[in-house]
Design brief:
This protein is mainly beta. It is 7% helix and 48% strand. The strands form ten sheets. Strands 10, 11, 13, 15 and 16 form a five-stranded antiparallel beta sheet that branches. A five-stranded antiparallel beta sheet has the order 21-20-23-24-26, with helices on one face. A hairpin with a 2-residue loop joins strand 10 (135-144) and strand 11. The chain is globular.
Length: 538
């Protein structure tokens, strides 16, 4: 007779029970309503996301949604509906973080959406005739390497009546620019025009958009201006061989403004020359430009640039000499006796500055080898800034020297044919700051970014000590590995507002919470939310 012992079986079942219990799926239920009216919103796409594993569902006529069979864990719930945006602050919730317990239903989740703003108007010519086919671009002020720039938010083309309408806009400040999608082929054309009817982006006026508000009558008047043809040789071994046969086609030429006051979207013009090794650009507006071109082949990248002053005459000899990219080698040094972090995760970053750097050398990152060595390969000739490294848990960059020159706080140039070593020293005595953000009523804010500003600016590299940290779950934030020193913490509702703008940051210092970070210290504090009105007055 076969005998079985029940004790081993019970032991096995006892070991499996916790695993079975923790794997029981849960459930998430809720609804989406319109902010203000409180009316339910149907046909809203609601996303339940966790580490890239997203599930989507549409709300029903009552605005309700249900996610069944949800594995236990943390999730973010986000609603999306055309013409609507999430509220700019989390006094009401436009997104929600939830934790699903095994076999449980998350308590009723209520999400809010608000009607987006609208900007509409008409594009006219000088004779007040409407101009169809004009690309109207909505730009937002941002910062590239500490330099103010205008980044594209939305765009639309004017219709046959010259009308345009941009909708579903999040609250904030915007700028309008109207231009042709391509440079004109004739000798006259419409140069890029900014609201209110200026060709100078530095005199463009901002348009303030609030939720649900339609701003109409924002018309743009475009004046026909003369354009010229610019051409020349592109001198590079990658373009043609010794017999003159073209090896590769010449890519489009990018034109950026030579004046560095504010970075604006560049003008890209196709080469129309059929002659090997030459380029010909038609419809170039009057202005001061840097002509940029890059060619990437197996032999490595080649870069070329030339400064061109465009007046009322065609230019035939704006030759562009291409040069190979430059390698920048170096080494990371860790504190004596300190363990090195996982070098497979350690990345160094640099980025180009100014108008040329923004479009010619957007940024490079490189992994560090086990011995601390690294090589940035094929860099374009431009001015660069050293940016914070990732994978440096427990460390911060104490110093950075390029050929004996301190480059941690200042930009540095990469020129063709130069060979210098970038030496980076790390330190491991950084402090930690934890805290929360509150509004003027003392209520916790859960949708903002906290910016750590040094009280004493040491140079023009905004990435050296400025730190940004989005709020995490529960309205809290943690900033680790902070260089010891004196700082102020400021919280913004809008992360694109531009904490890299030094004048703005200096003006907001009095509204921040002061703190002194001690070596290996830990501090806790509550940070007030900066009123949005203070960030708008520049």
């Amino acid at each position: 007779m076969l005998r079985l012992s029940i004790l081993p079986l019970l032991a096995i079942l006892g070991g499996l029970l916790p695993q079975l219990t923790t794997s029981v799926p849960g459930r998430v239920e809720g609804m989406v309503v319109e902010l203000g009216s409180g009316l339910p919103l149907a046909d809203v796409w609601v996303t339940l996301g966790s580490d890239g594993n997203d599930r989507d569902i549409l709300t029903d006529r009552a605005g309700r949604f249900v996610f069944a069979d949800v594995p236990p864990g943390s999730y973010a719930i986000t609603p999306e509906l055309a013409g609507f945006v999430r509220p700019p602050t989390e006094t009401v919730e436009g997104t929600r973080s939830v934790y699903v317990l095994p076999g449980r239903t998350v308590p009723e989740v209520v999400l809010y959406l608000m009607r987006g703003g609208v900007i509409s108007g008409r594009v006219y010519a000088d004779n007040r005739e409407p101009v169809p086919g004009i690309r109207v671009r909505l730009l937002r002020r941002s910062y590239t390497g500490g330099v103010p720039s205008m980044a594209l938010a939305e765009s639309v083309e004017s219709d046959d009546r010259g009308d345009y309408r941009l909708f579903g806009l999040a609250p904030g400040e915007y700028y309008l620019r109207a231009d042709r999608n391509e440079a004109p082929s004739r000798s006259t054309g419409y140069p890029p025009t900014y609201y209110p009817n200026t060709t100078d982006p530095e005199t463009a006026a901002p348009i303030r958009v609030t939720g649900g508000l339609e701003i109409s009558g924002i018309d743009l008047s475009m004046s026909i201006a003369g354009t010229v043809t610019v051409g020349g040789r592109i001198i590079s071994s990658l373009i043609e061989d010794t017999t003159g046969w073209a090896r590769v086609s010449i890519p489009p030429i990018t034109l950026v403004r030579a004046r560095e006051g504010i970075i604006v979207p560049p003008l890209t013009i196709q080469n129309t020359s059929r002659e090997p090794g030459r380029y010909l650009l038609r419809g170039v507006p009057v202005g001061s430009y840097e002509f940029l071109v890059s060619i990437h082949r197996e032999q490595g990248p080649n870069y070329g640039r030339v400064h061109v002053e465009v007046g009322d005459q065609d230019i035939e000899n704006a030759d562009i000499i291409m040069t190979p990219g430059t390698n920048l080698a170096g080494r990371v040094r860790f504190p004596t006796g300190a363990p090195a972090p996982e070098t497979s995760e350690l990345l160094l970053r640099i980025s180009g500055t100014g108008s040329t750097g923004a479009f010619f050398a957007r940024g490079d990152r490189v992994s560090v080898e086990p011995d601390g060595s690294f090589v940035f390969a094929g860099l374009a000739p431009a001015e660069y800034l050293l940016r914070p490294a990732s994978g440096l848990a427990g460390y911060y960059i104490r110093s950075a020297r390029l050929g004996g020159e301190d480059v941690l706080y200042e930009p540095f140039d990469i020129a063709p044919g130069t060979e210098r070593s970038l030496e980076i020293a790390l330190a491991n005595d950084g402090g930690t700051i934890v805290g929360t953000v509150v509004d003027e009523r003392g209520k916790f804010v859960t949708d903002a970014v906290v910016v750590l500003l040094p009280l004493e600016w040491r140079g023009s590299n905004p990435y050296a000590e400025l730190r940004m940290q989005p709020l995490g779950a529960g309205a809290g934030f943690v900033i680790e590995d902070v260089r010891p020193g004196r700082y102020a913490l400021v919280a913004f509702e809008d992360g694109s507002r531009g904490y890299f703008d030094e004048p703005l940051s200096r003006r907001l210092l009095p509204f921040g919470e002061r703190i002194e970070v001690a070596p290996n210290g830990r501090s806790s504090l509550r940070v007030p939310l900066v009123p949005e009105s203070l960030t708008l007055d520049r």
